[in-house]
Design a protein that fits this description.
The protein is 15% helix and 32% strand. The protein folds into 5 domains: 4-109, Chitinase A, domain 3, CATH 3.10.50; 116-221, Roll (Chitinase A, domain 3); 228-332, Chitinase A, domain 3, CATH 3.10.50.40; 339-444, Chitinase A, domain 3, CATH 3.10.50.40; 453-532, EF-hand (Recoverin, domain 1), CATH 1.10.238. Helix 10 (477-489) crosses helix 11 (501-512). It has helices spanning 41-44, 59-64, 153-156, 171-176, 265-268, 283-288, 376-379, 394-399, 463-467, 477-489, 501-512, 528-538, and strands at 4-9, 23-31, 37-40, 48-51, 73-78, 99-109, 116-121, 135-144, 149-152, 160-163, 185-190, 211-221, 228-233, 247-256, 261-264, 272-275, 297-302, 322-332, 339-344, 358-367, 372-375, 383-386, 408-413, 434-444, 453-455, 474-475, 493-495, 520-521. It is an alpha+beta fold and 539 residues long. Residues 533-539 have low confidence and may be disordered. InterPro entries: EF-hand-dom_pair, EF_Hand_1_Ca_BS, EF_hand_dom, FKBP-like_isomerase, PPIase_dom_sf, PPIase_FKBP_dom.
């Protein structure tokens, strides 16, 4: 004679219970006291959907559902006066029948409900939140209120990418995503009238279903965004900033907004080298690399329309915001020449280095970022060259010009006057700007250009006869070499400094041996000024 309610299962968590006026979706088995089944929602494959307390149910069920939690199971005994009474339901329920219902509550909402947002993780730093018209990339698990999974972007291994607040999403999701930070995790509960309504989506989601989305926001930008630059380290001394047309060498770590690493020059142990402002890199990087100093570290945040767009590339998903943490190692311009800074010059500085001079100097060689490459000090000996003879890179030949003994200077050499694009394997990186700190220790004046030997006094009128010691009318290399050595030893002649004696003498002999037979005759023998005069007369 009375309504009987037995709570056979009550979930641990029950954030909300049924109240009159709520809309519920539930499954049930209907049977008579002898166990004979007269109805089942399971057999129909769909829940029973109805408002509670509005007379849409038999009175006993209206009362029995009040206070239920989602996923709660109740066994309900309803007397006839609270069911179908003395009339029953012809062909189904006899008059004055007691009814037993095994009820499982699947869903619960109210027409006054709004979207519910529960944030369970929020990053410490949240520089920006989702606003209307932003484009977002997020992962989600979609479930019903009873926890049944109906969809997951994780299973597809691809984020859901969409604009927010412009009607691309169901209204409840449009609302639920607003205000999120990248990295934030929240649960968004959406009533059906802000989701797929009475009809559902025709696939996985039934009509009148509340939806629960567990969302993690991975990316966020607006189509109107430009790049964002965060200066992390700017050197105190910054004599020059990069401009369009400059060539840069820099290291970088490339990540997505959620911190996922997609690329790193450090892992390759090699800088990324490129021209700036010429379209060699993505548009956002072209812009972000302008105005940097050597040694500067900055973060460049690039929206996808200035990055790899909707398609993405490699490990970079479509529509992804990119974050580059860069460290500028050096830069130069192809029009750059050698830069010379004099730190010390002796007061008595009358003899200046010139082409052909033999120089001895110390140096420290480094990259623009200060990385030491080489040092004569560590070797304990000077570096010795003939200036302008191609024994060093062109930039060093230029940097050592017009220097006096005791002078100290810094010479900065762009790569096109140094070791070029290839560099020196294992020693000098390709396209590297070089910095040499130089001290000139000794200078031996060279000979006039084109000369390997000169006389310090008058030339003997019988020069050939003096060289031809055995007077056979022919001079061999041994005779020639011995004679030149004697002139140098006695101070009558001078060889070009810095070159190997035997090579110079052999070169001089070969120039005189005009028929190439290994002997020089009187007819072949001519001094350099005589050769020049003959050429002039002939012309």
């Amino acid at each position: 004679t009375e309504l009987g309610v037995e709570r056979r299962f009550v979930p641990e968590s029950c954030p909300r219970a049924v109240r009159p006026g709520d809309f519920v979706r539930y499954h049930y088995l209907g049977a008579f006291p002898d166990g004979t089944r007269f109805d089942s929602s399971y057999d129909r494959g769909s829940t029973f959907n109805v408002f509670v307390g509005k007379g849409q149910l038999i009175a006993g069920m209206d009362r029995a559902l009040v206070g239920m939690c989602v996923n709660e199971r109740r066994f309900v005994k309803i007397p006839p006066q609270l069911a179908y009474g003395s009339e029953g339901v012809p062909g189904v329920i006899p008059p004055n029948a007691v009814l037993h219902f095994d009820v499982l509550l699947i869903d619960l909402w109210n027409s006054e409900d709004e979207v519910q947002v529960q944030t369970y993780f929020k990053p410490e730093k949240c520089p920006r939140t989702v606003q209307v018209s932003d484009f977002v990339r997020y992962h989600y698990n979609g479930t019903f209120l009873d926890g049944t999974l109906f969809d997951s972007s994780h299973n597809r291994m691809r984020t859901y990418d969409t604009y927010v607040g412009i009607g691309w999403l169901i209204p409840g999701m449009d609302q639920g995503l607003l205000g999120m930070c990248v990295g934030e995790k929240r649960i968004i509960t959406i009533p059906p009238f802000l989701a797929y309504g009475e009809d559902g989506d025709g696939k996985e989601i039934p009509g009148q279903a509340s939806l629960v989305f567990d969302v993690v926001l991975l990316d966020l930008h607006n189509p109107k965004d430009g790049i964002a630059i965060e200066n992390q380290l700017v050197p105190e001394s910054c004599e020059r900033r990069s401009q369009t047309g400059d060539f840069l060498r820099y290291h970088y770590n490339g990540t997505l907004l959620d911190g996922t690493l997609f690329d790193s020059s450090y892992s390759r142990n090699r800088t990324y080298d490129t021209y700036v402002g010429k379209g060699y890199v993505i548009a956002g990087m072209d812009e972000g690399l302008l105005g940097v100093c050597t040694g500067e570290k900055r973060r460049i945040i690039i929206p996808p329309h200035l990055g790899y767009g909707e398609e993405g590339r490699g490990k970079i998903p479509g529509s992804a915001v990119l974050v580059f943490d860069i460290h500028v190692v050096d830069f130069h311009n192809p029009s750059d020449s050698v830069s010379i800074t004099v730190h010390y010059k002796p007061s008595n500085c009358t003899v200046l280095s010139k082409k052909g001079d033999y120089l001895k100097y110390h140096y420290n060689a480094s990259l623009l970022d200060g990385t030491l490459l080489d040092s004569t000090h560590s070797l304990g000996k000077t570096y010795n060259i003939v200036l302008g003879s191609g024994q060093v890179v062109l930039g060093m030949d230029m940097g050592l010009q017009d220097m006096c003994v005791g002078e100290r200077r810094t010479v900065v050499i762009p790569p096109h006057l140094g070791y070029g694009e290839d560099g020196v394997e294992g020693e000098v990186p390709g396209s590297a700007v070089l910095v040499f700190d130089i001290e000139l220790l000794e200078l031996v004046s060279g000979l006039p250009e084109g000369y390997m030997f000169v006389w310090n006094g008058e030339v003997s009128p019988n020069l050939f006869e003096e060289i031809d010691q055995n007077h056979d009318g022919e001079v061999l290399l041994e005779e020639f070499s011995e004679y030149i050595q004697t002139q140098v030893d006695t101070g009558k002649g001078k060889l070009a400094p810095g070159f190997d004696f035997e090579k110079i003498v052999k070169n001089m002999f070969t120039n005189q041996d005009r028929d190439g037979n290994g002997k020089v005759t009187a007819e072949e023998f001519k001094l350099k000024d005589q050769e020049a005069k003959e050429e002039h007369d002939e012309l």
